[in-house]
Design brief:
By secondary structure, the chain is of the alpha+beta class. Among the domains are: 21-110 and 176-181, no CATH class; 192-263, no CATH class. Helices cover 27% and strands 14% of the residues. It has a seven-stranded mixed beta sheet with strand order 1-2-3-4-5-7-6, covered by helices on one side. Strand 3 and strand 4 (102-109) form a beta hairpin. The model has no long low-confidence stretch (mean pLDDT 94).
Length: 280
């Protein structure tokens, strides 16, 4: 049962209540698309030029792909500015968990008009799987100097602020009370804190990171100017810390951070209270 104000239980066209992605994926394609389309922010529709409530532009070109296989508890939504464009403007992957939670597996939002920074491939041009299989240092330097965070290939569209309420209401309409995620980078974790997420696992590490970036801390002392990712002063901003962590400044790998958000009950977690806003 939905709990948010002015929200209601999601049902199929026959009036049967739906309580999971697995249940939605049993429906026919047109109904699945109708339901999952509610996760697309209006501004994304405006940027892509989608007409009405459709997934096509005024030329009739389909720009949004919804992958929701019957029998599987997941959905993937991909939106492009052109049907054959390799750049995905909006990429979303959600899945059900065995504990009746909504897992926000991926959400990537890119400005298709922004310059590309090839941080997602190594210097040979091969996919580096979020820098776990090699880095492209020249492109990372370009990206960092342009104000991007680790693993960002483009500037975003500032759409998450309008997308997340849609996700919360969608999750609530299925009678699910918790959204879970695994932030891939330090800046992702800090960003999720702003949206009311707390930690299932990793709060100790986040507190330790803040402590060790303080004057006298281990990570603070390693911001010695030995390379561009470890410059003095990077301790004061989220982007600076995130690039230093990406560069391996920590004593342990960034891994196994798990966060959660209760529907209608945002937490008030702030593991970097003294941060300064980066100048862009």
């Amino acid at each position: 049962m939905a709990t948010l104000p002015y929200n209601s239980q999601l049902s199929d066209t026959a009036g049967h209540p739906l309580s999971s992605l697995l249940a939605i994926n049993r429906l026919d394609e047109s109904e699945k698309e109708r339901i999952y389309s509610r996760l697309l922010p209006q501004r994304l529709r405006d940027v892509l030029g989608l007409t009405g409530g459709s997934l096509c532009n005024s030329a009739g070109e389909r720009l949004v792909t919804i992958i929701a296989p019957q029998g599987l508890p997941l959905v993937r939504i991909e939106a492009r500015s052109k049907p054959v464009d390799s750049i995905v403007v909006f990429f979303l992957e959600l899945s059900d968990t065995q504990f009746h939670q909504m897992e926000l597996s991926f959400c990537i939002i890119r400005d298709p008009a922004a310059p590309r920074y090839a941080v997602d491939v190594d210097e040979k041009g091969d996919n580096n799987w979020f820098a776990s299989h090699g880095r492209n240092i020249p492109e990372e330097l370009r990206a960092m100097r342009a104000g991007l965070f680790p693993n960002q290939t483009h500037h975003g569209l500032q759409l998450f602020v309008t997308f997340f309420p849609l996700l919360e209401r969608f999750t609530d309409s299925l009678g699910i009370q918790m959204i879970v995620a695994e932030p891939l980078t330090y800046d992702n974790a800090i960003r999720y804190e702003k949206y009311g997420f707390d930690y299932l696992r990793g709060k100790r590490l986040m507190r330790e990171i803040d402590r060790e970036f303080q004057p006298g801390g281990r990570y603070f002392s390693r911001l010695d100017g030995s390379n561009p990712f470890r410059m003095p002063g990077m301790d004061r901003t989220v982007i600076g810390r995130s690039w230093a962590i990406h560069d391996g400044i920590m004593d342990e790998p960034w891994d196994e951070i798990q966060i959660y958000r209760m529907i209608g009950a945002p937490a008030a977690i702030n593991t970097f209270p003294g941060r300064e806003e980066a100048q862009r």
